Amino acid sequence: MDEQYNGPVMTGNYNTGSPEIQNPVPQKKSGLAIASLVFGILSLIGFCCCGITVITAPLALIFGIISLAKKRSGTGMAIAGVVMAVLSILMIGVMIYSVKDFLPYSEEIVQDYAQLINDQDDVFPAYEKDGTLPPYIAKYKESPYKELLDKYDISIEQIMDIMDQQYQNGQFPKSGSVNVSNGNWADDTADDEPELEDEIAPDADLNPAI
Asked: Minimal CA–CA distance to 64: which of 83, 88, 50?
């Protein structure tokens, strides 16, 4: 009699070949994360130009937060953009806080500085001779300007000494480069252009119409 096999029976199809390896599909980087990173970098680079940072820093912060909230790819870039935006905003805040006491007098200070630039050839020689100051500079020895400078442990004499040293070294702004009325830098190239009308007019008389 044949012996009957009572062991387990294996059924089904079996693939004896090597398992197929599927390459993962690369995910596209989130545009919001990239935008946050770019604006974050611009906010740090443009820190000297506060007008630029005031625009780019909030944009970097907004794009970065949206990208993180939607859990899109590019998390590292979004975090970097948010961090740089926060740093830029903090630096602007610190800078504004450090000069907040001067803000009420900023326009007047700019006007006086512009006047000093235009009068430098008279002011600095007189200051070097006997410490004489023009009235618009001497007023900083009196209240409320004196108290303001004392708060930062400086005096108008110290400021004048620094500017006088710049004047002697030829590093002080050129006279006439600032418009005293509004404190804006003047365009010196206009003074260097020849007046063509004055040069052409005499020649026109030499060639009368026939």
From this structure: 83
Helix, strand, or coil (residue 10): coil
Cα gap 90→43, rounded to integer Å: 11
How far apart are the C-alpha atoms of 78 and 81, rounded to whole Å?
5
Please give the torsion angle defined by the CA atoms of residues 195, 196, 198 and 201, in that order, rounded to the nearest 10 degrees.
-170
User: Which single residue is written with the structure tokens 């905003």?
Assistant: 89
Q: Assess contact for 61 and 85: CB atoms under 8 A.
A: yes
Instruction: Please give the model's pTM, rounded to 2 decimal places.
Output: 0.52
Residue ranges of domains in the chain: 31-98, 103-184
- Beta carbons of 85 and 95 less than 8 angstroms apart: no
Angle at 132 between CA 128 and CA 134, to 5 degrees: 120
Digitized pLDDT (tens) for each residue of the chain, 210 residues in all: 555 556 555 555 555 555 555 555 445 557 888 888 898 888 888 776 667 888 888 999 999 999 999 887 888 999 999 999 999 989 888 888 888 888 899 899 999 999 999 999 999 999 999 999 999 999 999 999 999 999 889 999 999 999 999 999 999 998 876 665 555 545 544 444 444 444 444 544 445 554
d(CA 177, CA 148): 28
Helices (H), the chain: 31-45, 50-69, 75-98, 106-118, 120-130, 135-138, 145-151, 156-168, 189-192, 196-206
Token pair recorded at residue 136: 């618009």
